[in-house]
């Protein structure tokens, strides 16, 4: 089994508990830290990923699940891309504190865009989703899938809830090669943990972050895992020199 392994975790259950506790601890400043530590590039990544699924989002009967949604930035990017179309859009996460932040951001949007701009939020475990099989047209996950305690189980659960011909999009970090990779690792392992700890006042999550990226499968291995889980096709598109990338799978 390959999945997230926070310091001190001895099995999948303790790993999941540790991840939930970490995200609960940083929820109040999560958005600010994301934007500061990524130099605001994260906003471009969400929008670019959402554009990749414009065709599905335009379907009147589309059902969309944003998995491990955190405070909802990818969910909101999908809603904005949908425009005048109104797919059923759900954001799911197992951190109650993160979902509270997402809901608060939803309420802020009501005053400017009306209720049609508001996704629905549900507290749920990505490894045991409370949805019927073949339910969604699209399942996405942005920078959250990497934190699952079992990647293969997570992929199988996504396949289960997807309709035939449905799509999956997993946006997550990777480790670039060459000179860019050297600079990236220097920043990610030396600078980011210090700045993140200073701004959040919490040490663990920003020490865990570079370790979790290093542990995450390389693109070719991840694509193989997606195919083994049941995706008919799988592809990876690098973003920003390969610092991040979008995995796409078709059921």
Can you describe this structure?
By secondary structure, this protein is α/β, with parallel strands linked by helices. It has one domain (12-250): Vaccinia Virus protein VP39 (Rossmann fold). The chain has helices spanning 12-26, 30-37, 41-51, 54-57, 73-82, 96-113, 151-161, 178-200, 204-215, 219-229, and strands at 63-67, 88-93, 120-123, 136-142, 162-173, 233-239, 244-250. The chain has a 7-stranded mixed sheet, sandwiched between helices. α7 (151-161) links the parallel β4 (136-142) and β5. α3 crosses α5 (73-82) and α8 runs antiparallel to α9 (204-215). The protein is globular. The protein starts with 11 loop residues before the first helix and ends with a strand. The model has no long low-confidence stretch (mean pLDDT 92).
In terms of per-residue confidence, which ranges show pLDDT below 50 for 5 or more consecutive residues? none
Number of E strands:
7
SS class: alpha/beta
User: What is the CATH domain class?
Assistant: Alpha Beta
Helix % is: 40-55%
**Whole-number average pLDDT?**
92
- The oligomerization state is single chain
Blueprint (SSEs and pairs):
Elements: H1 12-26, H2 30-37, H3 41-51, H4 54-57, E1 63-67, H5 73-82, E2 88-93, H6 96-113, E3 120-123, E4 136-142, H7 151-161, E5 162-173, H8 178-200, H9 204-215, H10 219-229, E6 233-239, E7 244-250
Parallel strand pairs: 1-2, 1-4, 2-3, 4-5
Antiparallel strand pairs: 5-7, 6-7
Helix pairs in contact: 3-5, 8-9
